[in-house]
Design a protein that fits this description.
It contains twelve helices and twelve strands. The protein has about 325 residues and is an alpha/beta fold. The longest helix is centred in the N-terminal third of the chain and has 20 residues. Bound molecules: serine (SER).
Length: about 325
């Protein structure tokens, strides 16, 4: 029986819905505590303990850590880029205070390891757009990006100052079938599948040539677990690692889906998220992640689209 007790905050969200299931396969259902302020899906509710929980409350954080004798925390709770832009104050509170509370609990020696998600949103309009390097200009101009770059700085600071074993990934746009799209700029690439499968036209909020770095969720989960399972000595970057999966634009994913649904139609009508997308890179250089802990993506656009359609059809029909 594993001695590790894992706590996933944000278990009802985009990454959490998949990550909790995979962690429970590894550590056993009872050893992975899921929590969120939102109701989780059936699979998560039935697979192990669930706590309704607000990460912004310091008292609640230490209460749960002590109650379950937590050894590792995955703190995924956050507002994504589109939603954060509409409520900057709440985004700052949720994205920052949550991280800060967990880092402080780790500093007291109560938990051994932390995972925290960063994003390609740490980059901005002044960042090199193609093969964006690990270390480069990071001048984000979105609320979400500002919280992520600040969070990265905090992670590195807690590691150097207090030896907190915190690890992080700059996720590209994640495409998964378990959670519904949740307010991100890259979420068009999830939503588009629901429309195709239901036989509906899709109105895309980005232009057809907006190329962004993306990743299929199984790759995202594997990257997360590989990073967390790597020996501490091989984790050279304590802010957050660039990782890449694939890059595509709306027209490319539309055409790939048309291999399955030739009649599927997409109209383009940009909204405020176009400007967010324009400020982000088109492709990412992830050579540091490869060098330090062996990261390599498994899915490309075609294999992702093929699998997404199988999985979503199974879920919806
Ligand atoms: N997928 C996120 C978003 O679009 C980026 O990390 O907000």
């Amino acid at each position: 029986m594993s001695k590790d007790k894992i706590w996933v905050i944000g278990a009802s969200g985009q990454i959490g819905s998949d990550l909790v299931v995979e962690l429970r396969k590894i550590y056993g259902g009872a050893n992975v505590i899921a929590s969120d302020i939102k109701e989780p899906n059936q699979e998560i509710k039935e697979g192990g303990p669930f706590e309704a929980f607000d990460v912004c409350s310091v008292d609640e954080v230490s209460h749960i850590v002590k109650k379950y004798q937590i050894t590792e925390v995955y703190n995924l709770a956050a507002l994504l880029s589109g939603t954060a832009e509409k409520d900057p104050r709440f985004a700052w509170r949720l994205n920052m205070n949550g991280l800060f509370n967990i880092l402080n609990v780790a500093k007291e020696g109560l938990v051994k390891k932390i995972f925290w998600p960063s994003s390609i949103a740490v980059f901005g309009p002044t960042t090199p757009k193609f093969d964006t390097p690990q270390v480069t200009i990071t001048e984000p101009n979105t609320v979400y990006g500002i919280t992520k770059i600040a969070g990265e700085r905090w992670c590195e600071w807690f590691f150097h100052k207090y030896g907190v074993d915190v690890r992080s990934i700059r996720y590209p746009g994640l495409i998964g079938y378990k959670a519904l799209p949740g307010g991100g700029t890259t979420d068009y690439a999830v939503d588009i599948f629901y429309h195709a499968i239901k036989g509906m036209d899709y109105e895309c909020f980005l232009s057809k040539d907006t190329m962004l770095p993306m990743m299929y969720m199984p790759d995202g989960i594997r990257a997360t677990l590989d990073l967390m399972h790597a020996p501490s000595s091989s984790i050279k970057i304590r802010s957050s690692y660039n990782i890449a999966g694939m890059s595509f634009d709306p027209q490319m994913i539309h055409e790939s889906i048309q291999r399955h649904y030739p009649e599927f139609n997409v109209n383009y009508k940009g909204d405020f998220r176009q400007e967010i997308a324009n400020s982000w890179p088109s492709s990412i250089d992830d050579s540091e992640a490869y060098k330090d802990w062996g990261w390599k993506p498994g899915y490309d656009l075609t294999s992702m689209v093929d699998d997404m359609i199988i999985q979503l059809k199974h879920k919806l029909l």
